[in-house]
Give the backbone structure.
Amino acid sequence: MSLLRITSPHAHGPLSTTRVMQTVLLATLPGVAALVWFFGPGVLVNIAVTSFFAIAFEAAVLKLRGRPVLRTLDDHSAVVTATLLAIALPPYAPWWLLAVGAAASILLAKQLYGGLGYNPFNPAMVGYVVLLISFPVQMSTWAAPRGLAAEVPGLVDALQACFIPASFDGATMATPLDILRQNSDQSLAALYAGTPQLGAWGGVGWQWVSLGFLAGGLWMLYRGIFTWHAPVAMLAALAALAALFYDGGGPGSGGSPLFHLLSGATMFGAFFIVTDPVSSAVSTRGRLIYGALIGVLIYLIRTRGNYPDAVAFAVLIMNFAAPFIDYYTQPRSYGHARGDRP
């Protein structure tokens, strides 16, 4: 009797690549809704335009490589990359900035290495860093949130800012993390009293955006999209360092743990970027180390570096180290002594 020669994988669970990508897109909705409420529909235009360019670039490369275009695009990975990149960009960005970011994410960080599953770096964060280093003025132009601006821009304003940038004149201001980084002579109490952008927990608007991404991340965790190790380790390390070096609110204070957790891209990064299964560590201990070191780097760059928010840089640095971490944290094989290498 001949036996069936069946290679792995031997079982197909409900979490296919397409299903995972769809779940990630759905999980961004609470955070995106908060962004739209506080900053206007510019983020929706960002997502739509960046997704268009990402799909176009991916389709062109797949065609050149002789790969199936429609079947590959059907996994929604290009749209997920574009959405995560667009969320991180300032609303009301010009179309060419979105195009350059999509090109860096899809062409440079993904397809150059062979496509989905082969990229050593997080594509969305590569696109973000390329834009931040190349176009610092455009990347630091954040709209004033609802409650501080006289009027939040509407959809017509968002389209105008995207496709006719020179004709758009919106109210902009520094982000809460940038305000805290530049402070050197005021106590935090005085800074909070004289700065309307700073709210009770974090920045005005930003604290609710962070809670929105936290809700989406917890939903993905409940659905089994990723394990808790990397995001919890990152948040715990960041909070621990912020608490350790918090001096009660002096001029040189780096900010309270709650401020760091609910400002900037902390929650977005913890649940939507750090959990990338391709570019992160894969072992259980490795995920804990990987996430904790990202949290440490975020705090160090925020308080000692030149960039107020450091999630992208911290993630890319640790993407370099992920294979090294996995090598030294892989489980011991049955029948081998600890430390043996096959």
Notes: The longest strand covers residues 142-143. The chain is about 60% helix and 0% strand. Residues 175-327 form one domain. The radius of gyration is 21 Å.
